Amino acid sequence: MRFSVLGSGSRGNATLIASGRTRLLVDAGFSGRELTSRLAAIGVEPAEVSAILVTHEHADHTRGAGVFARAHGTPLMMTERTLGACARLLRGGEEVRTYRAGFTVEVDELEVDPFITVHDAVDPVAVAVREPASGLRLGIATDLGRPTLQVRHALRGCDALIVESNHDESMLWATGYPASVKARIASSHGHLSNQAAARLVYELLSPKLTVVVLAHLSEESNTPRLARSTMESALAATGFGGLVEVAPPDRPTPLMDLAVLRERAGPRQLSFL
Fold this sequence. Notes:
29% of the residues lie in helices and 25% in strands. It is α/β, with parallel strands linked by helices. Helix 1 crosses helix 3 (65-72) and helix 8 (194-204) runs parallel beside helix 9.
């Protein structure tokens, strides 16, 4: 299993997961042209994308979904309620497949387990993606107002996590945002802070966890350095031997091979048991 966060932040979010000939795009929050450009940067052609799975209807996750699907014949996957909320993006000629949280969806060589999250969208989900051939598992949880018991259960035992680390709490309250916006971001239906993300990953630590990618950083109330240092400080005493990376908003991360990363980190990952 290989993956790349094509970009993450308020301007757009998308993640590419590859297994064999399967190329699954989770969210498509950039224009069709920008998605094509970012896929090209990691060596993927648009026609190779097997499906686009949409987690919720917000524009920074859906902006290019309809136009990309129409241009390349790519199936779109979303819940019934999210489909209704995305009606303006569609023209009727797209292939749309609906899914339900709590039920595994097969996308060629991948299995996707969608699960309910808490966010101010009509039917938000996060996903855990499994490669049956290797047993490797990747969790993607952004736009996460709070980490519920269901979220913790769904993400436990992952080899890689892409998790929201949206804002530094002190910086958020010092921004020039209106008070209502600050309250919305900090609420249980808003976004995870660096501190909350660090607590969540600390709780999810296992010998399998190899890489943590911090995503959906605010450009006004966070910095990559703060997000990374908060996470690394929380994991420092555990003996975590894996990687902590930050997904930038303006370019893809490298295409990471999870099997290779696990092999490199292997012996150290046992040190905190």
